[in-house]
Design a protein that fits this description.
By secondary structure, the protein is an alpha+beta fold. The chain contains 19 helices and 21 strands. The protein folds into three domains: about 250 residues, Alpha-Beta Barrel (TIM Barrel), CATH 3.20.20.450; about 130 residues, PAS domain (Beta-Lactamase); about 120 residues, PAS domain (Beta-Lactamase, 2-Layer Sandwich), CATH 3.30.450. A hairpin with a 4-residue loop joins strand 19 and strand 20. The chain binds ligand C2E and calcium ion (2 copies). The site of one calcium ion has 4 residues, from loops.
Length: about 525
């Protein structure tokens, strides 16, 4: 049929009720349950057969028939739902399409309400689909319309989301309840650019606690992919084409039902949504945070970086950019052993609902600096959660330098202790600030000392290892060490047997010249007995 033919028989079509509703069910891909359906109009022309909406909707819009058609469809839908209720058919909420032309008519919603009341149909059996293109009249106007629908109890869906009418700004201003996303972005290339766009939209919708129904899903791989990125509600040929009333009733009778619920739930005390708003204090803090911070998601043993701040890049000092970290380094460059440490910490944080800390070594590769091994201290906490997915906030600190220094020290200490063994001397380390003493293995073995002695030297004075007449002198030595003495030495008769030993201390200082550690040794002096 050409346009003129159509226009010529529109009146007759309305009179003879040639417009018929088809229903396309929507499913939860996780459990196969029906969550709703969409009513789609068909024009069953007695001579020309079924006419698809794609062929006449825009004509109806330009010729001024669209509102009449939409109210017709709405009435048929109310009638259908009323029949289901009367015949105890376990129906689902069904959405219907509202053209943007309808929205500019003052009494459109009032007319809807008159029809709905005529059938005494509770509003929760209906859902309104507004195309994103309705926002051309301005977000503010659309927001008011949605508000009005909400005040009457309607669930409002944003249809064809992402089709190009400044989607993001619409979402910011218009509080829709469900987003409908068309698979068209993904045609033929799952995981490509389309995939990145779709997954970002789904994530964003999740942060907004807005469920997403993805339309036009034809292949199981597409449905699985959508589920993997957090969108499990599917409408498409994979499950069912739009079907006439009798077939839809069969579907209603055979499948289990479910409801569409927000995917990601946030922990109340922390408003994670704000992390995604560029104008909030949270973002300001995040970006200018003194610490290197990241937001990542965790699901089934896998980490995915979602956002990192500038400090995070600096902390890794590998000349990487945020994108590279999010795309290439999202697995955090951990080997098996370190990954286990990290994941265990993540699990602990989920359990404790509190901050947890770990230190892991990472193999970072960057184009300019090549390979490097970094030791990263991470403090992390859960800030959001879905069924099996968690959102984390983490701060990191590059402690490689300190760690290497510690390793050197540890190795030196080991050497020191071994040397002690071989040179027939007793030695120990004294932590000046904490007054902790760590004896060598020989002291532990021969003198029965504990591996760590607190409040040194009191316990050894008490035990008689240091004779009472030398106790005050020995206490004074430790005070001198505190005050910066570089070295001390004297012959002291040790143990209850008063065996003469040459006891020495030499202190170590930090870069500010403050003493922090002293090494003590005691060497047997044979001829002084
Ligand atoms: P829409 O609202 O985006 O509806 C979805 C369209 O995608 C439907 O086309 C549906 O049959 C089709 N579709 C669903 N699953 C798949 C799939 O897996 N693969 C493919 N290739 N297509 C799929 P349909 O029924 O031809 O409707 C086209 C458009 O006409 C609708 O797009 C809607 O904008 C408009 N329309 C339909 N009924 C009405 C109505 O009662 N009022 C108004 N104003 N517009 C309507
Ligand atoms: Ca639609
Ligand atoms: Ca659509």
């Amino acid at each position: 049929m050409n346009k003129d033919e159509m226009i010529n028989c529109v009146e007759q079509a309305f009179r003879e009720r040639q417009f018929r509703l088809y229903f396309q069910p929507q499913y939860n891909h996780t459990n196969g349950r029906m969550i709703g359906a969409e009513a789609l109009v068909r024009w069953i022309h007695p001579q020309h057969g079924i006419q698809m909406p794609g062929d006449f909707i825009s004509l109806f819009e330009s010729e001024g028939y669209i509102t009449r058609l939409d109210l017709y469809v709405f009435e048929e839908l109310c009638k259908f739902q009323r029949d289901c209720l009367d015949h105890h058919i376990d129906t689902v909420p069904i959405s219907f399409n509202v053209s943007r032309h309808d929205l500019y008519l003052e009494n459109f919603i009032d007319n809807m309400e008159i029809i709905r009341k005529k059938y005494n149909l509770p509003v929760n059996f209906l859902r309104v689909e507004i195309s994103e293109s309705a926002a051309v009249g301005g977000n503010e106007y659309l927001a008011k319309i949605v508000e009005k629908f909400h005040s009457l109890g309607y669930i409002v869906e944003m249809d064809d989301f992402g089709s190009g009418y400044s989607s993001l700004s619409v979402l910011k201003d218009v509080e829709v309840d469900i987003i409908k996303l068309d698979m068209i972005f993904l045609r033929g290339k799952i995981g490509g650019r389309g995939g990145i766009i779709i997954s970002s939209i789904v994530r964003m919708a999740n942060w907004l606690k807005t469920p997403v129904i993805v339309e036009g899903v034809e292949m199981i791989a597409q449905a699985d992919y959508m589920k993997s990125i957090g969108c499990e509600y599917i409408q498409g040929y994979l499950y069912s084409k739009p079907v006439p009333e009798d077939e839809f009733i069969k579907l209603l009778n055979e499948v289990k039902k479910d409801v569409a619920t927000p995917y990601m739930k946030f922990i109340d005390t922390l408003n994670a949504e704000k992390f995604w708003d560029p104008e909030t204090m949270e973002t300001l803090i995040f970006n200018n945070f003194v610490s290197a911070a990241a937001i990542f998601s965790y699901e089934n043993g896998e980490i995915e970086m979602l956002r990192v701040n500038e400090k995070y890049l600096k902390e890794l000092y590998m000349n990487l950019n945020q994108k590279e970290i999010i795309i290439d380094h999202k697995s955090l460059d951990l080997d098996e052993k370190n990954k286990k440490i990290y994941i265990d910490t993540v699990k602990r944080a989920i359990e404790s609902n509190d901050y947890e800390t770990c230190e892991t070594w990472r193999n970072i590769h960057s184009p300019c600096c090549g390979e490097d091994k970094l030791c990263i201290k991470t403090v992390l906490q859960v800030i959001g959660r879905a069924e099996s997915q968690y959102l984390f906030f983490a701060t990191i600190q590059n402690i490689t330098m300190g760690k290497n220094m510690y390793m050197n020290l540890y190795n030196n200490e080991k050497k020191f202790r071994t040397a002690g063994e071989q040179l027939n001397i007793y030695c120990w380390e004294y932590e000046i600030e904490t007054k902790e003493m760590r004896p060598c293995s020989r002291c532990i073995r021969d003198l029965g000392l504990a591996p760590l002695i607190k409040n040194y030297p009191e316990p050894v004075i008490e035990s008689g290892l240091f004779p009472a007449d030398y106790a005050d002198m020995y206490r004074d030595w430790h005070r001198q060490l505190e005050n910066g003495a570089k070295s001390l030495d004297a012959i002291i008769p040790l143990t209850t047997d008063r065996i003469p030993f040459h006891v020495r201390y030499s202190a170590e200082f930090d870069e500010n010249g403050r003493p922090y550690k002293a090494y003590g040794s005691a060497t047997f002096v044979p001829n002084e007995k």
